[in-house]
Design brief:
The protein has 393 residues and is mainly α. The strands form three sheets. It has a two-stranded antiparallel ribbon with strand order 1-6. Strands 2-3 form a two-stranded antiparallel sheet. The protein has a two-stranded antiparallel ribbon with strand order 4-5.
């Protein structure tokens, strides 16, 4: 048995019915993706993709982004292994085909060779952090399939990032227009700020280093970014907040309206990667500080906030941090409450059968790929021992 049994996992596994509930929830999510994935037909432009979110009336709210495709595929690869179901493997593989279609090789825009478009092959822009997670997906596709093409694609994205994805001070941009927009105005791009989500960058480049063996991906620039991020973006209360680059101060209003709180967009996981890359204890201290904050703020019902996306993110960080002996205030009982809260958000399809199994992120009756993908990956790590994804190797 290759599961690393921590004290927390032992406690969780001994709570009656929790493991069965976790596996049932994970299976439901995998079926949700299978049910809603656009079928792979050569005349269907969205083949392999899916809708990112449905509202309470079952109306789709965006096609999936590159990062959503990547994390859903990780979850489906895990589901294929755990449940021994080739349908899930096929679905993940076709997500990879769609993800590849988002990467730019157009000879007429050579400056953006390797970039990933945001939603579709027609998207004229990207959020840099989103594209990074798409490229992270390429690394994991390579690890799972052994196909060198995926690793080459990840490197091409990283090279684009070095050319076009960061500012003159070496800090990541919020977003980039890849071509002139189709309509007046474009997506929200605040390139004057360093986002509370940008810490997740530390994961991809560490994983790229592990896959290629090339230390340039965790070189001085990587360490400098990690140190500045920790110094300015993490606040005294332990949470990460977007800061204005010119002053490194927190603006009065968060441009994303508090989207990233307990869901730190995998920033703390990135700090663990930074520690593995450098051996510098301060990065572990940063993750420890975040975990103390979310443990302190956990509600009696198990939630950390209205969104349930933070639950799998936090539990995953706890698991990965324990391997590095990071201190935290979770006792097992708090994880159990969080898991029960998470299970309560699974859509039961009382109104719209095709939403069955998806995670209702805000408790409004819909389904969202963000919480669904994170939950699928982490539940199968917790209860089935598949620790390949969202990990710190």
């Amino acid at each position: 048995n290759y599961i690393e049994r921590s004290l927390i996992m032992s406690i969780i596994e001994n709570v009656a019915g929790l493991s069965d509930a976790g596996m049932k929830c994970a299976h439901g999510i995998a079926e949700y993706y299978l049910r809603n994935q656009i079928r792979f037909r050569d005349w269907e432009p969205g083949a392999g993709s899916f809708f990112f979110e449905y509202d309470a009336f079952g109306i789709p709210q965006l096609s999936a982004t590159e990062w959503a495709i990547a994390f859903a595929a990780m979850g489906m690869f895990s589901a294929a292994k755990v449940f021994d179901d080739q349908r899930y493997l096929y679905a993940a593989q076709k997500m990879g085909v769609y993800l590849k279609s988002l990467q730019i090789f157009d000879p007429f825009i050579p400056e953006h060779r390797g970039a990933l478009r945001e939603h579709t092959p027609q998207s004229t822009w990207c959020y840099v952090r989103d594209g990074l997670s798409g490229a992270w997906g390429f690394v994991d596709f390579y690890r799972v399939t052994g196909e060198e093409e995926y690793l080459e694609r990840a490197v091409l994205w990283a090279e684009w990032y070095m050319r076009k994805g960061q500012d003159e001070d070496g800090l990541p941009l919020w977003g980039v227009d890849l071509e002139p927009p189709w309509r007046d105005g474009s997506a929200l791009m605040r390139n004057d700020v360093l986002g509370d989500f940008h810490g997740g960058c530390l994961n991809f480049f560490y994983h790229l280093y592990k896959a290629t063996g090339d230390k340039k991906w965790i070189g001085d620039w990587y360490v400098s970014f990690a140190e500045r991020y920790l110094k300015y973006v993490q606040q005294p209360d332990g949470y990460y907040r977007t800061v204005i680059k010119a002053t490194m101060s927190v603006p009065e209003n968060d441009p994303q309206g508090g989207l990233h709180k307990s869901n730190d967009d995998l920033t703390s996981l990135g700090l663990l990667c930074a520690y593995k890359a450098t051996g510098d204890r301060k990065f572990l201290d940063g993750a420890e500080k975040f975990l103390a904050a979310v443990a302190r703020d956990q509600q009696p019902d198990g939630f950390f906030e209205q969104s349930c996306a933070g639950i799998p993110v936090v539990l995953n960080t706890v698991l990965e941090a324990e391997k590095l002996n990071v201190m935290h205030n979770f006792t097992g009982e708090s994880e159990c409450r969080a898991l029960k809260a998470l299970f309560s958000r699974q859509n039961n399809a009382s109104m719209y059968p095709y939403l069955e199994g998806g995670m209702d992120e805000y408790g409004r009756g819909g389904a969202c790929s963000r919480s669904s993908a994170y939950s699928l990956i982490v539940l199968l790590k917790l209860f089935a021992g598949d620790k390949r994804f969202l990990a710190v190797p």
